[in-house]
Amino acid sequence: MLRSYVASKVPADVVDEIVVALPTPTTRRSVRPVDLTASVDGLLGRHPTMLDGLRVQIDQLLEAASHQRDVVAPRHKHYVAARSAVIGELRRQLQVDDLTASPRALSAIDSSTRSIFRSSATTWLARSGR
C-alpha cells in the first residue's frame, strides 16, 4: 500500500529508496557528496566526445541506457521489420527469385567475338599509355 502511494507521487527510479527510508526515521543517516563522473582515457578515435578522453556521468549513462532499451531498440526493431517487408514485396514484384545466374564459359564465345574484345582491349591500353 505504501509502495503504490509513493509510486504515484514520485519518479519510479527512487520509489524503493523512499519506501525503505520512510518507516525507519530513527536510523542515522548521513549525506555525502559522491562523484558520479567516470573517465576513460587512452581511447582511439576522433569523435569530439573522445578527443580528451571519455567522461561519463553515471546517472546520465543509466538514463541513456534506459532510453536505448525502451525507445531506440523497439523503434529499430520496427524499422527492420518494415524494411524487410518492403524489400520482400519488391522482390516479389520484380520476381527476383525467378532470376538465375547462368555463367557462360569463355570457350562458348566464338573466335570472332574474342578477337573484337582483344582488339578493343589492345586499343584501350595503347591510348591509356599502359
Structural notes for this entry:
- The model has no long low-confidence stretch (mean pLDDT 79).
- A two-stranded antiparallel sheet has the order 1-2.
- It is mostly helical and 130 residues long.
- The radius of gyration is 33 Å and the shape is elongated.
- The chain has helices at 2-9, 15-21, 58-94, 111-128; strands at 37-40, 54-57.
- The chain is 54% helix and 6% strand.
Structural descriptors:
elongated, two-stranded antiparallel sheet, mainly alpha, 130 residues, 4 helices, 6% strand
Total strands: 2
**What is the H/E string?**
HHEEHH
**Helicity range:** 40-55%
Determine the number of helices (DSSP H or I, runs of at least 4 residues): 4
Overall 3D shape = elongated
Question: What's the average pLDDT?
Answer: 79
Give me the secondary-structure category.
mainly alpha
The largest β sheet comes out as:
2 strands, antiparallel
In whole angstroms, the N-to-C terminal distance is: 86 Å
The fraction of residues in strands falls at 5-15%
- For the largest sheet, list the strands in their spatial order: 1-2
Give a quick summary of the entry.
The chain has 130 residues and is mainly alpha-helical. The chain has helices spanning 2-9, 15-21, 58-94, 111-128, and strands spanning 37-40, 54-57. α1 (2-9) crosses α2.
Topology of this structure?
Blueprint: H1 2-9, H2 15-21, E1 37-40, E2 54-57, H3 58-94, H4 111-128
Antiparallel strand pairs: 1-2
